[in-house]
Input
Amino acid sequence: PGAPRTMQIDLQQPLAVDSITRRGARLEYDRDGNVVWVPVPGTRVGGVDTVVVWYGGKPRVAVNPPWDGGFAWATDDRGRPHIATANQGLGASVWWPTKDTQTEEPDSQRIAITVPGPLVDVSNGRLRSVRNHDDGTTTWEWFVTQPINNYNVAVNAGHYAHFGDVMEGEAGLLTLDYWPLEQNLGKARAQFGQTPSVIRCFEHWFGPYPFYEDGFKMVETPHLGMEHQSGIAYGNRYQSGYRGRDLSGTGLGLEWDFIIVHEAAHEWWGNSVTTADIADMWVHEGFGNYAESLYVECLHDEATGARYARGVRRGIRNDRPIIPPYGVNAEGSGDMYYKGSNMLHTIRQIVEDDDLWRSILRGLQSTFRHSIVTGDEVRAYISERAGLDLDPVFRQYLETTDVPVLEVRVEGGPGSGRLAYRWTNAVDGFDMPVDARLGPGGCTRLHPTGEWQTVEHDLERASAFDVDRDYYVRVLRPGHEAPVMAGATCGG
Output
């Protein structure tokens, strides 16, 4: 009874709808910009139905993929077509009709792409069939059995070669498939050999790879890379680092391929655990960048991983908050990467128990596996599992551009043996504990607040007071006009 339910379908111009059908009958629809409104009579909550959208046109050409995306119409180094999609932020509706939101995901997805015969299409999930047609085209049909973000659904068409491997993972046998361009097969066999070590490291820290049913793939693309679920886009040109550079300035980033490591981390953070609003992209990118330091730790040790984490601080700008306004499809500062990572690295120091910290990371993945979450849910989970009120810490690093400053002074004059300290440049209620050097005997845990507190010290000079460098904070010492980054070595 009453008016029929109305379905919203997103399709970005200049793509045009030809017709919309249901059970063979045409449906009326109205178009308002990039939104198509379709009344669908006789539907009910919980029901299953099929609506077919017939559409066409030339989709937007990507200006600078993957950052300014759409369809990338490129050629390989032999002058042959190399085509790919990349549309995070812009939206999947730039090339196919969909409900274009991160708040929901289809339970599964069939992807059938028809290309000129010499080309191979590699999309997400597992290959179901290859059908050759009389007109010289070929249809490649792929199927994703797990929930998937629609921006992750991808076309990758080129003159591909293929090879694969199988590894024993936490949840059983995991297939690894690699699709380089034909001429890069030798390079790919060498470069992609890193992949099993990356998966093993992240399974240790985060839990089982989230998409065993669909496998893990790396697909060479004409753009740098993107976390396309179960079919990661790879365009780092078979070199170590980020386009041959070490983003941390430590040299450690040149020991591995940035795109393999960072985009693989997104299978956990972004693809399995997905935020409802891109304003919370710090959950995707902060954890993704933090995973890089954990991979360095897997290759070396905790102290070396921490050195990488501190190294990427040089990329922090503190230009605007990491979290922008919600509900307006806004992305916050690029600090979601390096500052988000260092916030997590700092919280690890606060927790002061690596087994607990690892259980928190794995618990986030098991609790919210294949789920849509809010940043607040992630923050609350970490606080609850850590047994600490970390809300002021999250507010400080995610919602402001201020780096907290621990101000210290001598009470009672030089040689008094008492040092006063307090947090400044911080949000209300900021009470983050820190490990500080008070003398030659090592470090002591302090619990500063915004009010002055005192502690006995055994420093030869009060100005030698310092905080463990693995906390992303600054220290204002007696006799100094400006605060400096913490630099003490308390742990590894």
